[in-house]
Amino acid sequence: MADLQGLFNLFEQHANPDLAYKMAKYMGFNFEFFGIQKPLRQKLQKQFWQNHGYPQINELNDTILELWNHPKREPQYTALDLLDKFKTKLPQDFITTVEKLITTKPWWDTVDLLAAKIVFNLFEKYPELEQKYFDKWLNSNNLWLQRTTLIYQLKRKDSVNYKNLEKAIEQLKNSQEFFIQKAIGWALREISKFNPQYVTNYVENHDLPALSRREALRYLNRKKN
After folding, report:
1. Per-residue pLDDT for 224 more than 90?
2. Residue 119 host element (H or E)
3. Which residue, of 6, 108, 183, 202, has the fewest CB within 10 Å?
């Protein structure tokens, strides 16, 4: 396993305090940043992996957790890029690591990618995981796990599990959490792109928060104009 301190040193060498402040402000000062924007960060990552090699699959868990545990935010983005590269090769038990990532240093910038890419691919590869973790997360009372139950199907298109989606919406629609209300609308909006009648009917026949309704119909309303 490569010594990640070399990557952290690269980030430190290219740190930009002004950008770090702006990035932290954008994220509500929930995290500290080196101040490295995505194009440069990915260039530095590529340089590091070319010099040291990507981790083996049996090293991936430790590598991801070391990146996640770094006090600055950019290493968590590096972890997401690394997971995206390995997403179709992840073993079944990696779902426990993903669950930990969703609930550790959680915010939309990490959770949404974990849900829509990593959770989605694990559930596609190992269908037996889906219902177990869907039910567990929906009933967890954890905001970010519950958001995941709403948005992990964003890329499914015509193979959406409507039963799970509707179950999540009905259970969570009375939540006052912005990130839940927004996710309900986002999930429905994606479906409206290929099944508009379903979304129109669902919104008309269910009592949804105003934010969820607005987000759900945004694509369809835009098409009308």
Report:
1. no
2. none
3. 6
Q: What's the whole-model pTM score?
A: 0.95
Between CA 133 and CA 94 the distance in angstroms is: 12
How many secondary structure helices (H) and strands (E) does the chain include? 14, 0
In angstroms, the CA 122 to CA 125 distance is: 5
Strands (E), 77-178: none
Report pLDDT digits (tens) over 51-75.
999 999 999 999 999 999 999 999 9
CB 203 within 8 A of CB 216: yes
Burial 62-78 (b: 16+ CB within 10 A, else e): ebbebbbebebbbbbbb
**Residue found by looking up tokens 């974990």 in the block:** 114
Q: Contact 45/78 with Cβ under 8 angstroms?
A: yes
Tell me the C-alpha to C-alpha distance, in Å, between residue 34 and each of 72, 80, 105, 113: 6, 17, 16, 21
More confident residue, 68 or 157: 68
**C-alpha 169 chain-centroid distance:** 18
- In angstroms, the CA 3 to CA 22 distance is 29
Strand, coil or helix: what is 97? helix
